Amino acid sequence: MSKKTYFFLILILGSLTALGPFSIDMYLPGFPAIAKDLHTTPAKVSLSLSGFFIGISVGQLLYGPLLDRFGRKNPLYIGLIVYILASAGCAFTTSIEGLIAMRVIQAIGSCAAAVASVAMVRDLFPVKDNAKVFSLLLLVVGASPMIAPTVGGYVTAALGWQAVFVILTGMGIAIFTAVFFWLPASYEPDESISLKPKPILLNFWQVLREPQFYTYAFTSAIAFSGLFAYVSGSPIVFMDVFHTNEKVYGWIFAVLSVGFIGSSQVNTLLLRRHKSEQIVYVALIGQVIIALTFLAVALNGWLTLSITLIFLFIFLCCIGFTNPNAAALSLAPFAKNAGSASALMGALQMGMGTLISVFVSMFEEPSALPMVMGMAGSASVALLVLLVGRRTITTQIDVKQDADAALLH
Question: What letter would DSSP give residue 185?
C-alpha cells in the first residue's frame, strides 16, 4: 500500500469516524439558545445528547450484522442518507421533544459510519498495524472537538443554533460523496450470515464470550464513558457555573481536546517499545488517580476555572492512551466477525456513555459535581474490570502479532 493510498484511506475513515463526534460537539455551545427558543431548560436540552447516545447504541447493534452480511458500503449508504435527513429535521424542529426524536434518528444514521470505519480498519490493515491506525483515526477525530464547538459557538452567536444542523447536513452529503466515489469495497458480502434474531444473537454471543474481547471492550467502554460525563456536563459547568459565553466555551473545549489528541499520537511512539496491554494498564491507573483527586477537590469546594481545566486536561490525556489500545486488543481475535465485534464494542461504549450522560442530566442545579462523580466512577470501575478480566484470558492475542497467526475466528 502506497503512502498516498494509506493517507487517503485514513482521511476517509477518519471523516466517517468524526461524523458522530461532530454531531455531538458542534451544538453544545447552543444549549442555552436552544433552551430559550424551545421554552425549556439546559438540563432538558442535554437529554437530546442522551437521546443521541441511545440511538448510537441501538444502531450499532443493527449495523454490525448488516455490514457482515451485505458488505460495508451498502449499509453505510443507507445510514448516511438517514443521517442527512435527520440532521435537516433537527434544524426545523419546534419542540424539545421533536429535537430529542430527531437526534435519536440522526444517531442511528451516524453510527453506520462509526461501525463501518472500525470494521474497515480490520479489513484494510494487518492486525499488527491496527493500534497505530486507530491512533491516526483519533488524530482526525480529535479535530472535531477542537473545531466543532468553536465553529458551533460562532455559528450559534451569528446565525442561531439551527444553522449548526444545516452545516451537519452538508457534512453528511460531502462524506456520502467521498464514500461513494473513493472508498474501496473492503469486504465481500457473506451470505452465510443470517439476519434472523436468533443467529444474530448467537453471533454476538460468540464474540462476547471471548475473554480478550469482553475484558478490553468493557474496560474501554467504561473508561471512555468518563469522556461522555465531561461532554454532557461541560456546557453547564463552563457556561452556568463559571459563566463563560458560547465563544469562550468553544475555545475551552478545543484547548482541552489537545490533551486527548496529543496523547493518542504519543501512543503511536510508545507502541514501538511497549505492548498495548501495558499502556492500557498504566494509563488507567493514572486516570483513576486524577479522577479521584478531582472529586476530592470538588467535594471540598476548591474548584476554580483554572483547576477544573487542569484536571480535565490530564483526564483526557489518559483516555487518549487507554482507548486506541483497548479497542485494538478487543478486535484482535476476530476477522470474520469483525463487523459484529466492532458493533458490539461501539454499542457498549455508547451504552455506558448514555448511562453517564443521563446521570449528569438528572441534576437541575448547576454544579460540577455530577460531571466529576461520573468521571471518577467510570475510571474506578474500569480499572476493577481490567484487573478481574485479565485473569480469565488464557491466550492473549497481541496487536503486534502477524494477522494469520492471530486469528481465532
Answer: P
Question: For the purposes of burial, counting CB atoms within 10 Å of the CB of 302, is it exposed (0-12), middle (13-18) or buried (19 or more)?
Answer: exposed
Instruction: List the end-to-end C-alpha distance of the chain, in Å, as a whole number.
Output: 25
Contacts with 208 (C-beta within 8 Å, 6 or more apart), sequence order: 214, 344
- State the pLDDT at residue 382: 96
Phi, psi of 322 (to 5 degrees): -70, -40
pLDDT at 336: 65
Separation CA 156–CA 166 (nearest Å):
12
Q: Which three cell numbers stand for residue 320?
A: 487518549
Q: How far apart are alpha carbons 100 and 114 in whole angstroms? A: 20
| Residue tagged 462523580 (cell numbers) | 373
- Can you say how many angstroms the Cα of residue 402 is from the centroid of all Cα atoms in its chain? 28
- Say if CB 29 and CB 249 are below 8 A apart: yes
Residue found by looking up cell 502479532 in the block: 401
CB 305 within 8 A of CB 246: no
Measure Cα distances from 404 to 206, 325, 334, 408 in Å: 20, 20, 11, 9
For the chain, how big is the Rg over CA atoms in Å?
Answer: 20
- 3: number of Cβ within 10 Å: 7
Domains and CATH numbers, the chain: 3-184+195-406 (1.20.1250.20)
Number of Cβ atoms within 10 Å of the Cβ of 244: 19
CB 128 within 8 A of CB 400: yes
C-alpha pair distances (Å), 261 with each of 59, 195, 213, 314, 376: 26, 38, 25, 12, 21
Which parts of the chain sit beneath pLDDT 50?
401-409
Please give the pLDDT value at position 398: 63
**In this structure, what C-alpha cell is assigned to residue 5?**
493510498
Query: What sections of 26-95 are H helices per DSSP?
Result: 31-37, 42-70, 73-92
User: For residue 390, what is the DSSP state?
Assistant: G
